[in-house]
Design brief:
About 45% of the residues lie in helices and about 10% in strands. With about 250 residues, the protein is α/β, with parallel strands linked by helices. The strands form 2 sheets. The chain has a 6-stranded parallel β-sheet with strand order 1-2-3-4-5-6, with helices on one face. The protein has a two-stranded parallel ribbon with strand order 7-8. This is dihydropteroate synthase. Its cofactor is Mg(2+). InterPro entries: DHP_synth-like (IPR045031), DHP_synth_dom (IPR006390), Dihydropteroate_synth-like_sf (IPR011005), Pterin-binding_dom (IPR000489).
């Protein structure tokens, strides 16, 4: 999954692809490099982000989706607003990536169900708690999100779970979340998305600034793939495609 942020303030690439033509060129580049799906975000979710009104969020998304969807590009939209999700799905998006797992907007699950779409349900918290039992909190959160999905009529086969690296967790809990990915997969039997590209955990663990976190991201994502991650959400598509290809070549030689 290639990341396309059409925002001025995302932590890694804010402002780089705000202009529609620049965003479209980057989208096509990621597809050429091996992305199977594009995740488009028009509101930053980084710590301390500025909330964007729904009409402004949609104004950023509309020209991109309207150009890519007719070309058959699989599009995911990173939003917590049901009104934005509905417009995106009507325009041809196929997946809603909700960083609050249907829990921020009471209409979100119903919009996804009505359009027969897929959804990523991410674990999130408002505050960090260094005493948190992460696995127990995963269960609490995902049980509630899945209950909302069931009540709205979202097909369980259309749901994907995201452990929420960098959201409401200490850095040590971020590491634990990656290391425990297999437990999440085993407990729910659903596809898992891992989104840790260039995140602050690599600054904490390796002392690297945002633009020097590719090696750490690759290593963690390869670990995640071996632990059962089905989707890797990344900025650096070509490098991940190469790494995964080599991983498979070596596995096939056994």
């Amino acid at each position: 999954m290639g990341i396309l942020n059409v925002t001025p303030d995302s932590f890694s690439d804010g402002g780089h692809f705000q202009a529609p033509e620049t965003a479209l060129a980057h989208a096509r580049s990621m597809l050429t490099d091996g992305a199977d799906i594009l995740d488009i975000g028009a509101e930053s979710t980084r710590p301390g982000f500025r909330s964007v009104p729904a009409d402004e969020e949609w104004a950023r998304l509309e020209p991109i989706i309207n150009r890519l969807a007719p070309e058959g590009v699989p599009i995911s939209v990173d939003t917590t607003k049901a009104v934005v999700a509905r417009k995106a799905l009507q325009a041809g998006a196929r997946v809603i990536n909700d960083v609050w797992g249907f829990q921020a907007d009471p209409d979100m699950a119903f919009v996804v169900a009505d359009r027969g779409a897929s959804a990523v349900l991410m674990h999130n918290r408002h505050d960090c708690d260094d005493q948190l039992d992460l696995l127990a909190d995963w269960r609490r959160f995902f049980d509630y999100s899945l209950n909302l999905a069931e009540k709205a009529g979202v097909k369980k086969d259309f749901l994907i779970l995201d452990p929420g690296i960098g959201f409401g967790k200490t850095q040590d809990q971020n590491v634990q979340a990656v290391a425990s990915l297999g437990i999440l997969k085993q407990e729910y039997g659903l596809p898992v998305l891992l989104g840790l590209s260039r995140k602050s955990m690599f600054g904490y663990l390796l002392g690297r600034p945002v633009d020097e976190r590719l090696a750490g991201t690759l290593a963690a994502n390869l670990f995640g793939a071996d632990a059962g991650a089905d989707i890797l959400r990344v900025h650096d598509v070509r490098e991940h495609a190469d790494a995964l290809a080599m991983r498979q070549i070596l596995k096939d030689c056994k």
